[in-house]
């Protein structure tokens, strides 16, 4: 059973916490994580490029000249793709759908793998509470730096994911102005955000909530 130390806001160890092995101690399978990450990026993609067909280009309702006896080629509209200013054939359309379907079981499995990887690498820090005084940015930065110092990370400025319970709205406000830092409700935790961050900082309550959701 994985066990991690628990710290207070001053960086002092106040105890330990036993993590559920079926959530924080599973074997990491890169193929599963890859599928979930690709699907997450695809689902976030939006089709912006859009070209008009000949039926959508303004004008061109009148036949430019008679069908016969002019000596010129036959044309029915100046908005034909053959004409300058005409419609586009096989161009990109905004109705294209890039979505990839991922089963709920696979998403939760990927979350368990991402959390297990963070715990195994010493980059998962548990704190008693994350409630900087006044929820000010300066106090939040100080408390967060104390927590990051307990993680096994070599970067000078690592990216941080702070997982908080739903009731800690004030603490999340203090994280908004910090660069490379993201605050998240434990109920919305996902594998992509966990993998993207170098260090994951979570409160006791958030760990219990994330464990409950990942077990389903």
Protein model, in words:
This protein is of the alpha/beta class and 216 residues long. It folds into 2 domains: 3-45 and 100-215, Ribosomal protein L4/L1 (Ribosomal Protein L4, Chain: A, 3-Layer(aba) Sandwich); 51-97, no CATH class. It contains 7 helices and 6 strands. The protein has helices at residues 21-24, 30-44, 104-120, 137-148, 169-175, 191-196, 204-215, and strands spanning 3-7, 13-18, 124-127, 160-164, 181-185, 199-203. Helix 4 (137-148) crosses helix 5. It is elongated. The two termini are 19 Å apart.
Which terms summarize this structure?
single chain, about 220 residues, alpha/beta, Ribosomal Protein L4, Chain: A, 2 domains, six-stranded mixed β-sheet, 7 helices, 6 strands, about 35% helix, about 15% strand
Strand numbers in spatial order across the main sheet: 2-1-3-6-4-5
- Which H/E pattern describes the elements? EEHHHEHEHEHEH
Uncertain regions spanning at least 5 consecutive residues: none
> What structural class do you assign from the helix and strand content?
alpha/beta
Strand % is 5-15%
Count of alpha and pi helical runs: 7
As for the CATH topology of the largest domain, it is Ribosomal Protein L4, Chain: A
Rg from alpha-carbon coordinates: 27 Å
Number of strand elements: 6
Q: What is the correct CATH architecture of the largest domain? A: 3-Layer(aba) Sandwich
Please indicate the count of domains.
Answer: 2
Report the average pLDDT across residues: 92
The CATH homologous superfamily of the largest domain: Ribosomal protein L4/L1
Largest sheet: number of strands, sense, barrel closure:
6 strands, mixed
């Amino acid at each position: 059973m994985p066990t991690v130390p628990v710290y207070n806001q001053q960086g002092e160890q106040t105890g330990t916490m036993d993590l559920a092995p079926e959530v924080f101690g599973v074997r990491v399978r890169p193929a599963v994580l890859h599928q979930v990450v690709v699907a997450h990026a695809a689902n976030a993609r939006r089709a912006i490029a859009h070209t008009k067909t000949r039926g959508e280009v303004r004008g061109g309702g009148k036949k430019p000249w008679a069908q016969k006896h002019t000596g010129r080629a036959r044309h029915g509209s100046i908005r034909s793709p053959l004409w300058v200013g005409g419609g586009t054939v096989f161009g990109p359309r905004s109705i294209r759908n890039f979505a990839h379907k991922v089963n709920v079981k696979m998403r939760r499995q990927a979350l368990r793998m991402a959390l297990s990887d963070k715990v195994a690498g010493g980059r998962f820090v548990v704190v008693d509470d994350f409630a900087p005084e006044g929820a000010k940015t300066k106090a939040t930065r100080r408390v967060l730096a104390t927590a990051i110092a307990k993680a096994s990370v070599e970067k000078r400025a690592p990216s941080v994911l702070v997982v908080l319970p739903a009731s800690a709205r004030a603490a999340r406000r203090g994280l908004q102005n910090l660069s490379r830092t993201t605050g998240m409700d434990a109920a919305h935790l996902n594998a992509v955000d966990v993998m993207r961050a170098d260090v994951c900082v979570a409160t006791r309550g958030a760990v219990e909530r994330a464990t409950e959701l990942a077990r389903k």
